[in-house]
């Protein structure tokens, strides 16, 4: 098929993404955003030839105004919506944001090395960001925000030299240090919010992985010593109190007799009180 653009955004489509889309070898733009699509991201996306291996000698991959056909499309790239016309053939984009997609981001998607924009935001995606995502070296816009992703941001992302829009905010479970690169440190803090990330551009410093103090010190931490001495002081206090106050009643006969006389007197008064109340 010579189909190059599928733009079906902002409808009420539901169901899964059909695998037949993967047979569209000339597809440059896939836009299914703002629908009710569920299921997982097809692994067969790797077969989208024009996104994986642009053949510059193949005229079918480009659109020309001189042919009398002017194609345009509204695309959300780099966080904003723009209209692309004559240069549309130079854009490769997948936008399946704002749906109900589940499962993990398939590592096969990183084979689309000619892809310029990938928007998977506002879905229910889980798991880690694929480690090989750094293979998409021409990527300019990557939006993975508002999902349920976890783990660390892959170090390979620092290889994306053309990246000028990156958003992983509000995934809640992303952890660790933001990989060091000129691009990743240039984005605003809000693109990393809602996670447990650290390091520049965030103000939160990264510390070494937290290890329980008693394990790090072979079970002899200062905190542990404080707790042990606390227990010792409690036991000693009980022993001293028992020997200094309670013990004489049992081991010194006059005290023992006086104690029980006093106790008998109190019991007598209580008996009279309850009898009167009855």
Automatic annotation (TrEMBL):
Where it mainly occurs, coarsely classed, is membrane
Transmembrane intervals: 229-252
Task: Enumerate the Gene3D superfamilies for this protein.
Answer: Ribonuclease Inhibitor (3.80.10.10)
Give compartment(s).
Answer: Membrane
Arranged from A to Z, the UniProt key words for this protein are: Glycoprotein, Leucine-rich repeat, Membrane, Receptor, Repeat, Signal, Transmembrane, Transmembrane helix
Answer yes or no on keyword Cytoplasm. Answer: no
Q: Which GO terms describe its cellular component?
A: membrane
PANTHER family named in the record: LRR RECEPTOR-LIKE KINASE (PTHR48063), LRR RECEPTOR-LIKE SERINE_THREONINE-PROTEIN KINASE FLS2 (PTHR48063:SF48)
Family assignment from sequence similarity: Belongs to the RLP family.
Name by which UniProt lists this protein: Uncharacterized protein
Q: Which organism is it from?
A: Gossypium laxum
């Amino acid at each position: 098929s010579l189909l190059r653009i599928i733009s079906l955004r902002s409808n009420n489509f539901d169901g899964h993404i059909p695998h037949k889309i993967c047979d569209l070898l000339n597809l440059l733009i896939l836009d299914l955003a703002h629908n009710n699509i569920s299921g997982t991201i097809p692994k067969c996306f790797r077969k989208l030839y024009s996104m994986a291996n642009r053949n510059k000698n193949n005229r079918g991959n480009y659109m020309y105004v001189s042919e009398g056909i002017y194609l345009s499309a509204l695309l959300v790239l780099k966080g904003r919506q723009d209209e692309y016309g004559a240069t549309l053939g130079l854009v490769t984009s997948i936008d399946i944001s704002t749906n109900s997609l589940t499962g993990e981001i398939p590592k096969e998607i990183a084979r689309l090395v000619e892809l310029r924009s990938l928007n998977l935001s506002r879905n229910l995606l889980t798991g880690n960001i694929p480690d090989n995502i750094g293979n998409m070296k021409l990527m300019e816009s990557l939006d993975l925000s508002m999902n349920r992703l976890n783990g660390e941001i892959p170090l390979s992302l620092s290889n994306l030299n053309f990246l000028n829009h990156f958003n992983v905010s509000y995934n809640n479970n992303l952890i660790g240090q933001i990989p060091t690169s000129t691009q990743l440190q240039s984005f605003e803090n809000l693109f990393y919010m809602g996670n447990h990330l650290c390091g520049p551009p965030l103000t939160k410093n990264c510390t070494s992985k937290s290890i329980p103090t008693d394990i790090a010190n072979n079970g002899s931490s200062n905190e542990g010593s404080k707790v042990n001495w606390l227990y010792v002081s409690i036991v000693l206090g009980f022993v001293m109190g028992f020997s200094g106050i309670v013990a004489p009643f049992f081991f010194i006969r006059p005290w023992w007799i006086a104690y029980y006389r006093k106790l008998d007197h109190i019991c007598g008064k209580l008996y009279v009180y309850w009898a009167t109340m009855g």
